[in-house]
């Protein structure tokens, strides 16, 4: 049985209150388009890139030098995306007819492709076809609520996750960039991925059996959805206790999970949560639950 430990959530929130957590504005032009560019182009970039923003590594890391600078994982993906944007890659009609050879510029580094290359090509083709049918990308994001955004995205295969990881990530980007303003901010949640699940389990805000997590047994789709829904709810509780917008919390947690609470060799000496961390107290650092063959996150 998986439950939420409200006391642990309140303790984590207490630490967060001391950290001065702030939202990103997503202006780093290594990864994102110039903010003054036409809305259609920016919308096309974010809808398309978030559509393929899921696990980049399976057997080998997706990393390497791009124009002389080393990038890893999602950073590498968005750096490649930014360069493709400059070449006019993100047009609905072009994406709808995308070929594997054209996709090489977005999904490969030094000739090494991302692990599910063909899946991402198909997801982008679907995005392009659906956007073309709707009259472009700007129309898709021209909504005043997160609920309506999710409805507008629901026809796209990339956004069919019941937990809504990619939809929430897109909402976060759009609002942070000033491309959308949502009146139903109470509907915002963290976009739950591996990092957020792992941190929730280790902090103990989601009480799950560590033996199970450490066993490496892969869960099926229904169990994965159930676990991530619990994680999402737990972080919503933490956000309320900490008086943080879930999108600001996600910005913090994503970087924290990548840099401090790593899957392997967590950097506990640098962790502000170590005094309230279940994993640290037990001396056990389980990974996130295992669910590999998915494009949901």
From TrEMBL:
<protein>
    <recommendedName>
        <fullName>Iron-sulfur cluster loop</fullName>
    </recommendedName>
</protein>
<dbReference type="GO" id="GO:0006285">
    <property type="term" value="P:base-excision repair, AP site formation"/>
</dbReference>
<dbReference type="InterPro" id="IPR011257">
    <property type="entry name" value="DNA_glycosylase"/>
</dbReference>
<dbReference type="InterPro" id="IPR023170">
    <property type="entry name" value="HhH_base_excis_C"/>
</dbReference>
<keyword id="KW-0234">DNA repair</keyword>
<keyword id="KW-0227">DNA damage</keyword>
<dbReference type="GO" id="GO:0006289">
    <property type="term" value="P:nucleotide-excision repair"/>
</dbReference>
<keyword id="KW-0378">Hydrolase</keyword>
<keyword id="KW-0326">Glycosidase</keyword>
<dbReference type="GO" id="GO:0016829">
    <property type="term" value="F:lyase activity"/>
</dbReference>
<dbReference type="GO" id="GO:0003906">
    <property type="term" value="F:DNA-(apurinic or apyrimidinic site) endonuclease activity"/>
</dbReference>
<dbReference type="GO" id="GO:0000703">
    <property type="term" value="F:oxidized pyrimidine nucleobase lesion DNA N-glycosylase activity"/>
</dbReference>
<keyword id="KW-0456">Lyase</keyword>
């Amino acid at each position: 049985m998986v439950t939420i430990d409200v006391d642990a959530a309140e303790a984590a929130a207490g630490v967060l209150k001391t950290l001065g957590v702030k939202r990103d504005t997503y202006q780093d032009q290594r990864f994102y388009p110039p903010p003054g560019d036409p809305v259609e182009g920016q919308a096309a970039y974010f809808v398309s890139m978030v559509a393929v923003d899921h696990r980049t590594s399976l057997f080998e890391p997706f990393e390497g030098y791009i124009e002389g600078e080393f990038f890893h994982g999602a950073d590498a993906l968005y750096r490649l995306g930014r360069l493709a944007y400059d070449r006019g890659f993100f047009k609905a009609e072009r994406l709808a007819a995308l070929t594997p050879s054209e996709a090489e510029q977005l999904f490969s580094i030094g000739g090494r492709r991302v692990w599910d290359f063909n899946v991402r090509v198909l997801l982008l083709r679907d995005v392009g076809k659906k956007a073309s049918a709707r009259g472009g990308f700007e129309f898709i994001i021209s909504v005043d609520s997160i609920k309506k955004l999710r409805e507008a995205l629901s026809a796209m295969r990339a956004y069919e996750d019941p937990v809504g990881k990619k939809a929430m990530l897109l909402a976060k980007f759009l609002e942070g960039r000033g491309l959308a303003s949502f009146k139903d901010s109470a509907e915002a949640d963290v976009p739950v991925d591996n990092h957020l699940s792992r941190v929730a389990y280790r902090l103990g805000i989601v009480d799950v059996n560590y033996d199970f997590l450490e066993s490496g047994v892969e869960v099926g789709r229904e169990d994965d959805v159930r676990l991530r829904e619990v994680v999402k709810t737990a972080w919503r509780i933490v956000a309320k206790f900490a008086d943080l917008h879930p999108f600001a919390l996600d910005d913090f947690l994503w970087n924290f999970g990548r840099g401090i609470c790593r899957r392997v060799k967590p950097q506990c000496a640098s962790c502000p949560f170590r005094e309230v961390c279940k994993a640290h107290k037990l001396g056990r650092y389980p990974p996130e639950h295992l669910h590999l063959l998915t494009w949901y996150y």
